[in-house]
């Protein structure tokens, strides 16, 4: 019996000790906890401690500062204040200074954009036989170990940036010495091979039997613009080569306005498509600095307007995205941005790719015109509860009414790579 009492007494003392240690640790971390809370809930100290520990604010001090949040620099209003923490609003616990930041705000896009980019190096997109003087088909590059998807960087130690430069260098080396040194990139490895080009009877030139491409072009949608830095994000997914399906390494590129003149309606098994052309005298243009998993990013110049948003709106973070109704903004005729109703059917948190939520089109007019989500709609901004939460990315091949969306948070994280490069 005495043993049982001693065990109970020890258990109670251990519990009290643990609670006391936790309480002391809380006193140390109160400012950090409060700082985290106010940054995300606009100065409301919420959570499990809100009813136990109350906060009194004193001596507010407003000032404008430049901060980097999720990789994008913004001018925001900062409010520094002294706060006092009290247990149940009565017993003083601690005091300190916290800084409350206003939320990041971006202008939702929706504009149809034409995208052109030049690859970093020249991409091999196919193999082609070279017919020699005896009528024999040969594949010199393939025999030397060059594959589809490889990026040609140098021919005879000279950089190549266009398909014409590759062709001319191969022909010249073939005439002069009958062989050519080719430096190329395969995934993350740089490889050098010696190729023996063959004189092609059909073209009258030395060739090594490759189809190559040095540029890509297409139509997509602008996702957002930061009105402070003029940084933009678009597409919501990486640009890949149409033949190799590999990510394109960007050497140079730009975006301009495009106009949509036809819609190929989506149906089961056959995704639809916006059919458009570039606007010659575009009112805006942007550089392409990054081609990432969640879209393309660069700097914008010119005039960007969305008739539904006269001012920038707050960003909705991953934790704020929820299942339920939302709106998307995109162009289906000419250059006019329109608003359409969608539903967020599923939210997949903690994913860092471009498939973070399932979006279903519910707008009757959009369903009638496009069948749902179609190619060219990628990048269309998604707004929920007055906050920019993401962008449309992919369509479901077997269900054109549904597709994926990327969190705007993930796009901003990827855009930070651009800021780091510029700051270096």
From TrEMBL:
<dbReference type="Pfam" id="PF05580">
    <property type="entry name" value="Peptidase_S55"/>
</dbReference>
<dbReference type="InterPro" id="IPR008763">
    <property type="entry name" value="Peptidase_S55"/>
</dbReference>
<feature type="domain" description="Peptidase S55">
    <location>
        <begin position="189"/>
        <end position="424"/>
    </location>
</feature>
<dbReference type="Pfam" id="PF13180">
    <property type="entry name" value="PDZ_2"/>
</dbReference>
<protein>
    <submittedName>
        <fullName>Stage IV sporulation protein B</fullName>
    </submittedName>
</protein>
<keyword id="KW-0812">Transmembrane</keyword>
<dbReference type="InterPro" id="IPR001478">
    <property type="entry name" value="PDZ"/>
</dbReference>
<keyword id="KW-1133">Transmembrane helix</keyword>
<dbReference type="InterPro" id="IPR009003">
    <property type="entry name" value="Peptidase_S1_PA"/>
</dbReference>
<feature type="transmembrane region" description="Helical">
    <location>
        <begin position="12"/>
        <end position="28"/>
    </location>
</feature>
<dbReference type="InterPro" id="IPR036034">
    <property type="entry name" value="PDZ_sf"/>
</dbReference>
<dbReference type="InterPro" id="IPR014219">
    <property type="entry name" value="SpoIVB"/>
</dbReference>
<keyword id="KW-0472">Membrane</keyword>
